[in-house]
Each structure stands twice: as structure tokens, then as C-alpha cells.
Design a protein that fits this description.
It is built from 19 helices and six strands. β2 and β3 form a beta hairpin. Belongs to the SecY/SEC61-alpha family.
Length: about 450
Amino acid sequence: MNKFVKTLKNIFSIEELRNRILFTLMLLAIFRLGSYIVLPGVDPSQLNSDSGGILGMLNTFLGGSFSRASIFALGIMPYISASIVIQLLSMAVPYFQRMQKEGESGRKRINQITRVLTIVITLFQGSGYLYSTIPTEAIVIKQSLFYPASIIIMTAGTIFCMWLGEKITEKGIGNGISMLIMIGIISSFPTALYQEVAQLDQNILFVAELIALFFIVMGVVLLNAAVRKVPVQYARQVVGAGGKKRTLATGQRSYIPLKVNAANVMPIIFAQSLMFLPSMIANIWAETSDTARWVQQNFSDFTSVAYNATFALLILIFTYFYTAITINPDQMSEDLKRNNAFVPNVKPGEETSNFISWILDRITLPSAIYLAVVAILPAFASMLGVSASFSRFYGGTSLIIMVGVILDTLQQIESYLLMQNYDSMMKSGNIKGRQNVATV
């Protein structure tokens, strides 16, 4: 406990880190406040607050704003969908590939296109949300005025959420978009925990659930922290070539830490952002088509076989996809060659790139399978009698997102602490430059 208190004191003793944390908390509070502001013209008492299936899971990610028909009802989900589309285009369309290679100017143009596409997606998703989830008896103004005004307000709300996420990333702590999703999930956890305790007749069952949840959390933490170390050898370099005596700096050994779960939480977010689309689209033709009715029923139930099979498949695909676009073996091979380094027993250049790709392919497969298994655990937990609200935290997307975001944020905080300690030791003179040399 004393160590924990000391760590908190160290965190808030660093002015920049303290300001970033307070700034992040302020923006997260604004985001939570907006989730309680209901759309104009809606009677909250007429809304169905008990959203089940996939809509209930989506409502968990949005912190309840989905079921409350708030101005942030769609949150940043349209932005995530737009990002997926742009990343897919960057893999297949030469125009977007050229923009990625243009550096900062290219990234700015891609961000602008992503924002415009977010508005387009929000208009479509907002229309589907208003017509499919808000009952007509809850609308207290003229529908001809309500629908266009609400679509505009929801679009503005999504853009504002996107702005909040970008500001948290820029001036706060952690990844802003992921932080918004995490705070929505955490906000519903106390209620889910209370409901689970209330429905159980025996305390031993609740203790067993907590023990199982503990081991699942530990497994997710291990997955996020696991790395595959690729050994790297730096060649000896001449330090003092002039004079009678030449010295060579001893070749150093190091390694490249390739994360087993390099994609982190993004495959889960990408897959989840697409999973509610089939049921919303099928709902349009559910009254006239048996196939559409089947799709609507199965993809609205997060415990169905069709839903979980599709969800797991999307996670497998997105894990490989996101790993491929974030880790470039060719670039890593070039960087090693430029720094006069090499992988032992592997020739520099193409063979090094192929070797890194070979390792990535083999560590990504178990990572993708593990992510998919953990993501569908809520369905099994629900079958074993765990309440629907609490089962969403019993593994699954909610847990993976929370663990991933929390670990990423803690790593950033730790970096600030290490930097502060390093600066303090440099100022105090406790660190002196050392060079391990060999005389030849």
C-alpha cells in the first residue's frame, strides 16, 4: 500500500504528466455528461432501456448512451468504421498507398478523408438507429421535424466524440479513441456486478465466478505482455582510428521485441463495429424475407452460433490485417542494415525481412485464436447461468478492451516516470558515460 501511495505521489509530482492526466479526466467527464443528454423531442420514459443481444453489447461500449437516445448515441463507432474502410483502401488502392508514403502531408489528407467518411457513415447509421430503436410513442414532436434534426444532432455528437478522442491522444494520456470506449464499458460495470450478486442465491457461486474471471484477466494480461525476442547483433565499429593505438567498440547484442499480440485491442474494436450491421440491415426486410428474418434474429443475439462464428472469423482476419499494416518487415530489415546491425545466422536484406515475416506469421496465429476464444467467452458464460449484463465482462470484448487500454496507459505513465528518474540522475551526476572497448 505504501508503494502504491508513493507511486501516486511520483505521478502527480511531474507537472506535464499531472496536467495530461487531469486533462484526460476532464474530457472523459464531458463525454460521460453528453451520454445523458437525450435527443430533443424524445420522451425518455417511453424508451426501452433493456437492450438485449448485440444492441445491448453495443450499448455497453457506449456507456448506456445508445439506450438513452442521447446526442452521443453512436459515440465514435462511425469513426472506427470509417478508419477500417480507409485502411482497407490503403491496402488495395494505389491513390491511398501514395498518400501514405507522402509523410505528414499524406497523413493529414487521409485524416481529412476519414473525417468526411465518418460523417457519411454517421448519416446512414443514425438513420437506421432512429427508425429501428426509438419507438414512435417516445417521439413527442412532429416526426417530419424530429428525424432530420436528430440525424444532424447525432452526426455533430459523433464528430465531437471524435474530436475528444483526438485531443486526449494529443494532449492527454493514452489512446483517445480507446479511452472513450473503455470509460463507457467501466461505467456499466458496477451495475452489472450488483445485478449478478442480487440474482445469485449462493455466495459460493459468485466467488467461483470471480476466481474464473481473475484467471481470464491474467491470461489476457499475459497475452498483451508476451513478446518474441528476435536477437540482433551490432557490428564492431572503429572508435579511435587515428594515432598509434586503434580501439574498436565491442559489438553489442540486443533484440527486437515482437509483441505476440501486435494488433492489441484493434481487431476486437474493428470486428465489433461491424457486427451490429447485419441485424440493422436485415431489419429493413425482416417482414418480407425469411432469410432477412433469420439474419436479424441470429445477429441480434450475441449467444447464437452464427454471431459468435462470424465474430471469431472477423477477429482472425483483422488480427492478421492490422498486424500486416502496422509492422513492416522490409522497413525493419532496412533499419537494421542502416544501423550496421544484423540477425545472427541470417543474411541482411531480403532474408532478414523473410525471417521476421516468418516469425510474425507464427506468433500472430495463436494470438488471433486466443483473442477470438476470449471474445466469445460471454456466450459460454451466459449459457452457464451468468447474467447477460455481467457475462459481457466475463472475458469477451469488454475485458480485452479494458485490459489493453489500461496496460497501454500504464506503460505511457511508466515512460514518464522513467524519463523523470533519468533526468534526475543526469542532473545529480549519478550516471556517467561508459564505453566498453577492446584494444587491438
